[in-house]
Amino acid sequence: MSPPKASTTISLPLRLVLLLLEPLGALNGAYLTLFTPSSYHSAIVRPHPPSWSPPFSPQNQYLYTQLAGAWLVFAFNESVILWLYDDLKLWKLMCWGMLISDLVYHVSAVQAVGGWERFLGVGGWNLFDWAVAVSAAGPAAVRVWICLFAGQKGGREKGKGE
């Protein structure tokens, strides 16, 4: 028996989030952190307490380079590996790994704005905050769905051999 296919188990809109939309966002993030790290820093960090904000330092460029590398791995895994291999088990394994990174990324977003109280105060969010939230939470939700529900009864199609 052939392994269950991602293309027959996961709907096209959900696959496009991981195969096209998120890789483009990851490439954009890599570009920002490699070539305009001080602008990226200014957009993502909120003063906490309000009178203080950690300044951007060129001495910390290596941290932004590491972040760019992580985003480039995401872009590669999604737009190359997932595109080439139509195997639901591989997609699930890749998504579990990416969810680990998602969890750490979301914790860093909370840290960047000054903690949970400020993070949950969505009324004070700016356009960049909303763009980051939507572009990170949407694909993470797709990965959760794939990991927990793809190939199960009631899903799009039950994969053979599962």
From TrEMBL:
Matching InterPro entries: DUF7704 (IPR056121)
Pfam families named among the record's database cross-references: DUF7704
Coiled coil location: none
Residues of the DUF7704 domain: 14-144
UniProtKB keywords: Membrane, Signal, Transmembrane, Transmembrane helix
Record field: transmembrane: 62-84, 96-116, 128-150
Residues in the signal sequence: 1-29
PANTHER family per record: CHROMOSOME 1, WHOLE GENOME SHOTGUN SEQUENCE, EXPERA DOMAIN-CONTAINING PROTEIN
Protein name: DUF7704 domain-containing protein
Organism: Podospora comata
UniProt lineage: Eukaryota, Fungi, Dikarya, Ascomycota, Pezizomycotina
